[in-house]
Amino acid sequence: MKVKDIAIGAGVNPDTVRFYTREGLLKPTRNPDNNYQHYDAEDLRRLRFARKARQLGFSLPEIRQILEQAEDHHSPCPMVRDVFQQRLAEVEREIAELQQLRNRMTAALSAWQDMPDGTPDGHTICRLIEHWDESVPESAIEE
Amino acid sequence: MKVKDIAIGAGVNPDTVRFYTREGLLKPTRNPDNNYQHYDAEDLRRLRFARKARQLGFSLPEIRQILEQAEDHHSPCPMVRDVFQQRLAEVEREIAELQQLRNRMTAALSAWQDMPDGTPDGHTICRLIEHWDESVPESAIEE
DNA sequence: TAAAACCTGTGAGCTACTCACAGGTCAAAG
DNA sequence: CTTTGACCTGTGAGTAGCTCACAGGTTTTA
């Protein structure tokens, strides 16, 4: 398989394949005749694995580590479980933060309905934003 | 005020102050004696405003635009309302995505409790991730 | 007076790609 | 058999919003 073939096989940009190769996640062999990279079924598996792991929030260094451990015939799975659980906690933190932000935003938007636009006078820049947090009732801030 | 003073006043890194200055969000004057930047109360207001706007998801170019319009004595607020509403929609999309991811992750974690670790054998790398989406029941995927 | 703490601008590093460029290779159409 | 178009190669830059490192100048403190 050449770059485009494996890229299509995993549904990614050929440049991503080249990038992953540079980063050491894929290890194609080389055709000495034309200097082209040659990827096999194992590379495709690794690439598909990498994309799934990326969806889960694993970083490229983490993925490379897992791939290397798998190569050394160690079992990477306990490590996966660990990173996975950490990542889950992070995702939940992100959700909570975004929900808080959304609440503040919707509250601010409704508060702004009653505020005039107000031309800046050299002292205030835009009342809508300068007072956005003060205009949000406490009750809306805590989820 | 020198860099460190305004940075402390807004609770940011001095390098961020320098960066915002380079980006044209702050316009300090210069002390010709020692070539130091001098920030005044207006700069501090602009910086605090910029940080609040950043929390709301405004980009630096957007913030600069608002600041410039305020300087020209135009009212930036209708523009703020627009960008704000777009940003709110984005935040809600992000929340939905993350919630979906969280559901898939928790479902996968509980499914993995019953799966052995499995040493890689040259065909599979880590069953936990390779089959993570297949192991998640449909019902868990749709919010 | 000497050391510590500040200031300056510039340039690189972070993430995970994506794209542009210049030049080499190959398959099929004319 | 040649040309055209689609592919391949590596390198370098761009993305956002900082953060940090560096080398050299200035001010404050002990």
Automatic annotation (TrEMBL), chains A, B:
Keyword list (alphabetical) reads: Coiled coil, DNA-binding, Transcription, Transcription regulation
The family database entries (SUPFAM superfamilies) matched by this protein are listed as: Putative DNA-binding domain
Q: Does the keyword Cytoplasm apply?
A: no
Keyword Hydrolase part of the UniProt annotation? no
The residue ranges of the HTH merR-type domain are: 1-69
Q: Which GO terms describe its molecular function?
A: DNA binding
Q: Which InterPro entries match?
A: DNA-bd_dom_put_sf (IPR009061), MerR-type_HTH_dom (IPR000551), MerR_fam (IPR047057), Tscrpt_reg_MerR_DNA-bd (IPR015358)
- Record Pfam families: MerR, MerR-DNA-bind
User: Which stretches are annotated as coiled coil?
Assistant: 81-111
Q: Which domain of life is it from?
A: Bacteria
Q: Under what name is this protein listed?
A: MerR family DNA-binding protein
Q: Which organism is it from?
A: Marinobacter azerbaijanicus
